Each structure stands twice: as C-alpha cells, then as structure tokens.
UniProtKB/TrEMBL annotation:
The gene is CAD10. This is Cadherin-10. It is a single-pass type I membrane protein. CDD domains: Cadherin_repeat. The lineage of its organism: Eukaryota, Metazoa, Chordata, Craniata, Vertebrata. The chain crosses the membrane at residues 603-634.
Length: 652
C-alpha cells in the first residue's frame, strides 16, 4: 500500500458518519461561535461525501458564583441554524432551575441567572433546550441537553468538626510522638485553585507541641515532659486555606491535651523508723498499725506491694497490702507473750507492682523502713490446754459418770486459781454438769443417741481473783450407739390374698427399720412366731422377706381376715427383736390376680331390685304412715277423756 492510498483511506474514515455519543464541552466567549456547515472530501469512487450539519450552537456555559451585580448575570446564548432572524422560532428552556433560577429570551436565546448562586449548594445545573416554530409549535430541532457549571471562589473558611478536642499522651514520651490528628474541611471546590487547600499551624501550645502542616497531626515537641510537674496543656490549631498564603480564610480549634501517667517514680517512706505498740492479749489476725510509702504516680503505676524482708519478728507478725489505701497493715501472726518477749524489730519493704522496663534507669522502684513493735503487758484470761475438746461416751452409761476433763491455767505470773462452769445456753436440757474446781464433765441425766447424737457444749474458765477474765472453749460430746432398739416394720402393710390363690404364691414383700446404727450396718432376720398352716415367711437375706401362701384357695365367707405375727431380729449385741402383725384380707380376684372385692357382705346384696320388690317396699312405707297417723289420733282423743277411767278402759 502506497502512502497516497493510506491518506485516502484515512480521509474517508474521518468523513464518514460515526454513531457515537459526543460529550459537549463549553467555554465562555463573548461572540457566538460560527457553525461549520460542511466540508466536501473526495472519495475513491468519485462520489462526494457531505459532513452532517449540527443544528445548535451556543457559548460554552460557565458561571461565577456569588455574583454581586445589580443586573441579571449573563450565562450564554442558544442559537439554531434554522433561525432566520424573522422571529419565527421560539426558544424553550427546561431542567434544573429553568424559569426560576435561569431564564431565556425566547426570541434571541440569551440565558441569564436571576439571582446569586452558591456553588457549595449546587455545583452544576443540567438543562435542556429546544427551538420550536411559533405558528405550528412543532420543534425544528431535536431537544439538546447542556450543563451550566458554577465556577468556585474562595468564600468558605476551613472548619473543624469539633470546637474542642480532648487528647492524651503518655508523659516522658519521645519527641515526635503522635498525640491526635485534627482535620478541617473547606466547602470550596478542591479541584479549582487553592481555595480548598488547607494548611495547619499552631497558635498556642509551643514549645511543647507541634503540628504537621499538611496532615494536622499534633506531635510532642519537647522530651521528658513530666506529668508530676504539669498535667494539662491547651493547644490552639489554625487551619488556613489558599495553601496558607496571605488572603486565605482560616478557622481554629482548641485541643486539651492531658499527660497520662507512667511509672517513672519509685515509692518512698517518709520515715526511716516507725514505732508501734501492741497488747500481748491481741488475738492472731489483729491489726496493730500501718505503714505507707508515697508514690508520685497514679493508678496502677502507684500500686505498691509490702513485705517483711528481715527482723526478729518475722515469725510473729505479718503484713497485708490494702489495695484501696495502698497501706501496709501489720497484723499479729502468732500469740504474743509479754513475759517471753517485749520488743520486736521488722524491716519492711515497699515495691511497685507494675514496673516499666523503659524507666529501669530511674530505679530501684522500692524502698525500706524499720518498724519497732513494743508488746504491752495485760492481765490475761485463763488458757485452756486445747483449742477444743472431743469426748465420746456410750448412751447407756449411768447418771453421774465422768465423760472427760478440761484443763486451764492462768498465764500471768500471779497464777490465779481457776473456776470452771458450763454455759447453760449450750445445754438447755441440763444433761451435763462440771466440777468447778477440776473441770471434770459428768452426766446429770440419761443419754439417748436416738434423740441427739451430738452435744456441743461451751465450758467457761474464769480467774477466781478476777472473774471478768474468762475464756471459753468448745466441748463436743459424741454419743456412741448401744443396741437398745428393736427393729420394726418399715411401713404399714395393707395385705390381701385372693380366694383362688395357689400354694407358694407371693402376697407381700416386707422390710424393717432400726433406730440403732451399728458399726457393721443393719442386718435383719424374719421368721414366724409360730407355725402357720396358711402362710409362711421366706427371708431374702437382704433385710427383706416374702410372705407366701401355703394352701390352695381361701374362702372369705368362712374367714375374711388373717392375722400373721412376724418376728424381726437384728444382728447386734445384745440382740433385739420385735413381733409385727400383718393383717391379711381375703378378697375376690379376677383371673389375673387383680382384687375385685374384699367384703363378705357384698355377696348377699342383690345386683338390682325387681318391680315387685319396689311395690312391696312402697306398701310397707304406706302401712307405717297409717299406723303413725292412727297413733297420733288416739293420743289426742285420750287427752280429752276424764281422769277416772274404768278398769276395762285401762285394759283396752
């Protein structure tokens, strides 16, 4: 292919109509653009191609926002090549704001804006234009759509979403640590000039903080800012558009920054030596005083753990850390004795529980102090030889038997005599008593394990010279079992036997209970008190037994009820036994052994009454009523007769 042929083909491709949707671009001019009517391009076959005409032509429509002139703002002009200038055409405008915001001169096609436009409210308007014949009202050109774009001016200052921000950053942070990012928005067009390009600067808060101009990220600007010296900072940030140049609009916001605590301070005791006093009578667990180390930090960074690390009282005292007050509470670990030792020395250490490895160089994060504890003498109450006593005794002992002895002494050097007594609130039934001189506990009433297996008593030991000094001790008395109760039926048994029963048929399974509690467990034996021709008992050897029949058939008309004595024995020493009597009724049963009736009189009652029987019963009732009426009439007549009657009347 030659260069000439290639050029011819290219021109043909350009001149041929292409079916596409062109995008119309506009630019503002003062004079309407001329329409190109056509261009002839020769074809290789000798025919001439004509370029298709465009029916419309207008200025490119761009409108400046915030117009302040007194007249309507000129937008542009619409014109059709069908317009001969004779006024036969009429231009019509429709779409966004047509007729209100935008008006068109129907003769000339000039478009004006009727009021000031704010781009931030709407950035562009889409309208449609059409030219019609005034006489026929028919369109002479197809409807065409165009856009009026609003040009932006810098009429909006940057704004922050919050007037006041709150942020925090750890104290002792390195320079450049990010605190918070603030972002301002500008309603102007970011794609047109620098109206919406925001630059950040710091107006207040230097030299402690800085802000990145482009991002608005606030960072620390000084090293080792200490919360203990200053905790709160107020930073004012300015956002300015036009890239921060002169003439740009600006807005500000306030950022309140708090330095949060880190563990950069060790605990410190205010005193090197602390003196405490404690009574020798203080019980174990008694708090005798507290120590406290101060820490300039807060929260968990100020939490301290106390411990006793040295001294001659490590076995006698303990220390507990009180989380709420951050104090070390010293308590009694073992009973104290003034006569044995009067002064103890402890070395107490306080250490932070949450140490930050970054600040090890500021340590050590602990401190120590000396605690001296003086023991003071008191008149102590008697001391029992045991903290509690347990006595075991069988329930069958005689009244007055000694079951055990409690012992107590006066720990003071005076060694006052002791008097023992029993707290009657723990022995309301007065089953026990105690010798006041030697502490021997004995019974004053018989014991019964089945009524009460345990007795929890309290014995009081008091000094004779000072009765107010007394001590109590718990005494537990366990009553041991003796086989003194016979076994009995576990429940009441309602037993029956069918008239058609066969020999060896099971009619009842029985069991027993015993109030005693032998060490080897309960074991019962069942037998008959005497040989019975009708029934027998079979021991199952599992504390139950079966009642079986011995004969074939029973007759409830002859005997309706049988009494069967059963002997129940236990296996303990001495052996206890009892006789329980089973009441066995004879009943009529169906073929499957289900009870139907157990009353002998039920057979004598008829199943129903006939008509004759009912008539006879009614006649009897009538006769009885007549007799009653006659008797009443005769009695009334006799009351009217004289008192003197003849012998014949009396006889009658």
């Amino acid at each position: 292919m030659t260069i000439y042929q290639f050029l011819v083909l290219f021109l043909l491709w350009v001149c041929l109509p292409h079916f596409c949707s062109p995008e119309i671009m506009f630019r503002r001019t003062s004079v309407p653009q001329k329409r190109i009517l056509g261009a002839r391009v020769p074809r290789s076959d000798g025919k001439i191609l004509h370029r298709q005409k465009r029916g419309w032509m207008w200025n490119q429509f761009f409108l400046l926002e915030e117009y302040t002139g007194s007249d309507y703002q000129y937008v542009g002009k619409l014109h059709s090549d069908q317009d001969k200038g004779d006024g036969s055409l009429k231009y019509i405008l429709s779409g966004d704001g047509a007729g209100t915001l935008f008006i068109i001169d129907e003769k000339t096609g000039d478009i004006h804006a009727t009021r000031r436009i704010d781009r931030e409210e709407k950035a562009f308007y889409t309208l449609r234009a059409q030219a019609i014949n005034r006489r026929t009202l028919r369109p002479v050109e197809p409807e065409s759509e165009f856009v009026i774009k609003i040009h932006d001016i810098n009429d909006n200052e940057p704004t922050f979403p919050e007037e006041i921000y709150t942020a925090s950053v750890p104290e002792m942070s390195v320079v450049g640590t990010s605190v918070v990012q603030v972002t301002a928005t500008d309603a102007d067009d970011p794609s047109y000039g620098n109206s919406a390009r925001v630059i950040y600067s710091i107006l207040q808060g230097q030299p402690y903080f800085s802000v990145e101009p482009e991002t608005g990220i606030i960072r620390t600007a000084l090293p080792n800012m200490n919360r203990e010296n200053r905790e709160q900072y107020q930073v004012v940030i300015q956002a300015k558009d036009m890239g921060g140049q002169m003439g740009g609009l600006s807005g500000t916001t306030t950022v309140n920054i708090t330095l949060t605590d880190v563990n950069d301070n060790p605990p410190r005791f205010l005193q090197n030596t602390i003196h405490l006093r404690v009574l020798e009578s203080s019980p174990v667990g008694t708090a005798i005083g507290s120590v406290k180390a101060t820490d300039a930090d807060t929260g968990k960074n100020a939490e301290v753990e106390y411990r006793i690390i040295d001294g001659d009282g490590t076995d006698m005292f303990d220390i507990i850390t009180e989380k709420d007050t951050q104090e070390g509470i010293i308590t009694v670990k073992k009973p104290l004795d003034y006569e044995s030792r009067r002064l103890y020395t402890l070395k107490v250490e306080a250490e932070n529980t949450h140490v930050d490895p970054r600040f090890y160089y500021l340590g050590p994060f602990k401190d120590t102090t000396i605690v001296k504890i003086s023991v003071e003498d008191v008149d102590e109450p008697p001391i029992f030889s045991r903290s509690s006593y347990l006595f075991e005794v069988h329930e069958d002992i005689e009244v007055g038997t000694i079951i055990g002895t409690v012992m107590a002494r006066d720990p003071d050097s005076a060694s006052s005599p002791i008097r023992f007594s029993l707290d009657r609130h723990t022995d309301l039934d007065r089953i026990f008593n105690i010798h006041s001189g030697n502490g021997s506990l004995y019974t004053s009433k018989p014991l019964d394990r089945e009524l009460s297996q345990w007795h929890n008593l309290t014995v009081i030991a008091a000094e004779i010279n000072n009765p107010k000094e007394m001590t109590r001790v718990a005494v537990f008395v366990r009553i041991l079992d003796v086989n003194d109760n016979a076994p009995q039926f576990a429940v009441f048994y309602d037993t029956f036997v069918c008239e058609n029963a066969r020999p060896g048929q099971l009619i009842q399974t029985i069991s027993a209970v015993d109030k005693d509690d032998p060490l080897g467990g309960q074991k019962f034996f069942f037998s008959l008190a005497a040989v019975n021709p009708n029934f027998t008992v079979q021991d199952n050897e599992d504390n139950t037994a079966r009642i079986l029949t011995r004969k074939n058939g029973f007759n409830r008309h002859e005997i309706s009820t049988y009494l069967l004595p059963v002997v129940i024995s236990d296996n303990d020493y001495p052996i206890q036994s009892s006789t329980g009597t089973l009441t066995i009724r004879v009943c009529a049963c169906d073929s499957q052994g289900n009870m139907q009736s157990c009353s002998a009189e039920a057979l004598l009652l008829p199943a129903g009454l006939s008509t004759g029987a009912l008539i006879a019963i009614l006649l009897c009732i009538i006769i009885l009523l007549v007799i009653v009426v006659l008797f009443a009439a005769l009695k009334r007549q006799r009351k009217k007769e004289p008192l003197i009657l003849s012998k014949e009347d009396i006889r009658d």
